[in-house]
Design goal:
This protein has 322 residues and is an alpha/beta fold. The protein is built from eleven helices and 13 strands. The N terminus is likely disordered.
């Protein structure tokens, strides 16, 4: 049987009172079928391209020509030859398809790389292990992701958000800024650390009365680690501090230099520092909450949501180990 469409159906048009004709616009499906025929050169090949039957392609073509009121193809034996009108229409259709391809490329790119670079900030504590581990999870799923990562103290972190330099922040403190939202991701235990070989090595658990005579690394009173230090010593006077630092990771460096003891969270201890330290649990025990902060004015981008999930995964994995 010749490779040709079904007979034309009645033209879908109606004259108005002034004698003009209104034609029903072509549907996206009709445009798709027209393009497939132009590209492949036949009804049967267009059906294979679109994964539909040959009669279905014929019916759509017949309806398309009926709506337009003119033929798109001349039937020459078993071949379809595009009319000048079809050739002109095809050029316009191809421009549309190029735009659709551009949209598809962008949609795929947004899924892989997000809308530009993810701006990530965290306290130095989490820059040792947590954030690099979470980034490894992120890049396993989004290998083309771009991330701008920097450390910041919590008071600096708010400024990064308000200046548009941060999408997501990870820290030990929540924000009360009305433009920001903070959610708890988990917790991390607090431990006491001392230089390797310190008298602390003889203790299984460190309590306040064990360490009152030693020098300590202090923190600002309103910092999470500073509040933990106050809770640890309770009503007893705080021991003398040789130096005050603004992050547990800085305290780790000071302890390694023999400047005193410190309370730190486990995330601030890297594999490289552990051989140089005595690390002991404390009594009473305590944990610090890990917070994620982001804007409640602008939605968190896709890469931000993926990074947030990666951080939560790393925290959960670490909790199992502990």
């Amino acid at each position: 049987m010749p490779d040709s469409p079904a007979p034309d159906s009645t033209v879908l048009e109606a004259p108005d009172l002034l004698g003009k004709t209104h034609r029903t616009p072509l549907s996206l499906r009709q445009i798709e079928v027209f393009r497939a025929i132009m590209v492949t050169g036949s009804i049967s090949a267009a059906g294979r391209m679109l994964h539909v039957s040959q009669p279905a392609i014929s019916r759509v073509l017949a309806l398309t020509e009926s709506r337009l009121g003119y033929q798109l193809f001349d039937r020459v034996k078993t071949r379809l030859v595009a009319t000048p009108e079809a050739t002109r229409l095809f050029r316009e259709v191809e421009q549309i398809y190029e735009g659709i391809q551009s949209v598809n490329d962008l949609a795929i790119s947004l899924g892989e790389t997000g809308f530009g670079a993810l701006k990530l900030v965290s306290s130095a504590t989490f820059g040792q292990r947590m954030i690099p581990s979470a980034l490894a999870h992120l890049y396993a799923k989004s290998p083309r992701a771009q991330v701008d990562f920097r450390n910041a103290t919590f008071d600096q972190m708010v400024g990064h958000f308000l200046a548009g330099r941060a999408h997501l922040g990870i820290s030990l403190q929540s924000s009360d800024n009305p433009s920001l939202t903070s959610v708890a991701l988990g917790s991390v235990p607090v431990v006491c650390i001392a230089p390797k070989g310190h008298a602390l090595q003889k203790l299984d658990i460190v309590s306040p009365h064990d360490v009152t005579e030693f020098q300590w690394i202090g923190y600002p009173a309103d910092a999470p680690a500073g509040r933990a230090l106050s809770r640890f010593f309770g009503d007893a006077p705080l021991p003398r501090s040789t130096i005050e630092v603004h992050s547990p990771s800085m305290a780790v460096s000071c302890v390694r230099q023999g400047l005193g003891l410190a309370l730190v969270d486990m995330w601030s201890l890297s594999m490289e520092t552990l051989p140089h330290l005595e690390v002991k649990p404390i009594a009473p025990g305590m944990d610090l909450t890990i917070w994620a902060t982001y804007s409640n004015v602008e939605p968190l981008p896709l890469l931000g949501r993926r990074m947030l999930a990666a951080v939560k995964k790393v925290i959960d994995e670490e909790s199992i180990k502990l």
